[in-house]
Amino acid sequence: MSQTQLSWQQQLGEAFQSVAALCDYLQLDYREVDSAAASQSFPLRVTRAFADCMQKGNWQDPLLKQVLPIAAELTSPFGFSTDPVGDLTAMNETGLIHKYYGRVLFINTATCAIHCRYCFRRHFPYQHHQLSRQHYQQSLQYLRDHPEIQEVIFSGGDPLLLSDDKLIELIKELNQLPQMIRLRIHTRLPIVLPDRITEELIKALQHFNHSVIMVVHCNHPNELSVSVKQACQRISQAGIHLLNQTVLLKGINDSVDILSTLSEQLLISKILPYYCHLLDKAIGTAHFEVEKSIAIELMQQLHHRLPGYLVPKLVWEQAGAAAKTVLL
Ligand SMILES: *Cc1c(COP(=O)(O)O)cnc(C)c1O
Ligand code: SF4
Questions:
Q1: What are the backbone angles phi and psi of residue 183, rounded to the nearest 5°?
Q2: What is the pTM of this model?
Q3: pLDDT digit string (tens) for 63-111?
Q4: Whose alpha carbon is nearest atom 6 of ligand 2?
Q5: Could you identify the atom of ligand 1 that is nearest to the CA of residue 151?
Q6: What is the pLDDT of residues 2-14, one digit of tens each?
Q7: Cα→Cα distances 198→103, 191, 193, 234, Å
Q8: For ligand 2, atom 8: residue with the closest CA
Q9: CA distance 235 to 240
Q10: Pairing relation of β-strands 211-217 and 182-186?
Q11: DSSP 275-315
């Protein structure tokens, strides 16, 4: 059976979970990479759909670099921590992170389809935030008690790993809250598992009575395969607004050419660039860091090359701040 005939759940089950298996698939010799120690705390995980966007035989592939555990992760320079943005401190016991006015992150699943090496959530003790029915009830009560919150952001982990039924159930609860006028979904699945975007999923999301915004996460134009583009076009046709956030990553997308191609290809996929994030300084990610001054310079060049709506806002998240800091 070919990969494309498998359901999204089956594809998830067949994701690569070892460096050896992925390297084998990519025609690389896994003995050339020192990945054992880095894999222990945060193992490799990548879908076949994402691996299919990588170039075979190329250690420098910009998508491979996002998921391959390497020894450089073991260094922890000054200034890097396990909770760089203060989310752990801000998360209440039900999985809500209410840091910004009027909107709240709802961490409703702990798993991702792919493990991005630069992710600050690699240090989250998610098991302490298991989502029981009781937790959902407490979260909903919190929202009832805070009528100023007009937007819920499903986050994770990846919220689109929830079943369609679970999503419908949550959305119906949100519909009961009169102040709730926006539902946002932060997800990487349209990029790394485009078959997740089924007709049923789109119908499930359309249960929400007001605006639905989906913020995907794509770092490099090579991630936008034909099936990814088609999945995003289906989402857009259903009236769901699509935005993208990118993390600026050294050796992966820190170039004007790559960033401008990314913006242009996103638009073809019906997605507008939203944020370009400076790296969150999580332990194990220092080798991805692009210096702030270089990042600002890159964005200025991008601004000269592209229409304003194709230039994402360069932002930086500081623990304790009332919003993301906009640098450009
Ligand atoms: C990024 C973030 C949001 C959303 O911020 P926007 O600027 O509205 O995109 C909300 N809550 C938390 C905790 C965040 O980190
Ligand atoms: S939360 Fe997003 S960035 Fe982090 S590992 Fe999951 S998919 Fe990657």
A1: -120, 125
A2: 0.96
A3: 999 999 999 999 888 899 888 888 877 877 678 999 999 999 999 888 9
A4: 112
A5: 8
A6: 555 899 999 999 9
A7: 27, 14, 11, 9
A8: 116
A9: 6
A10: parallel
A11: EEEPPP-BTT-GGG---HHHHHHHHHHHHHHS-GGGSPEEE
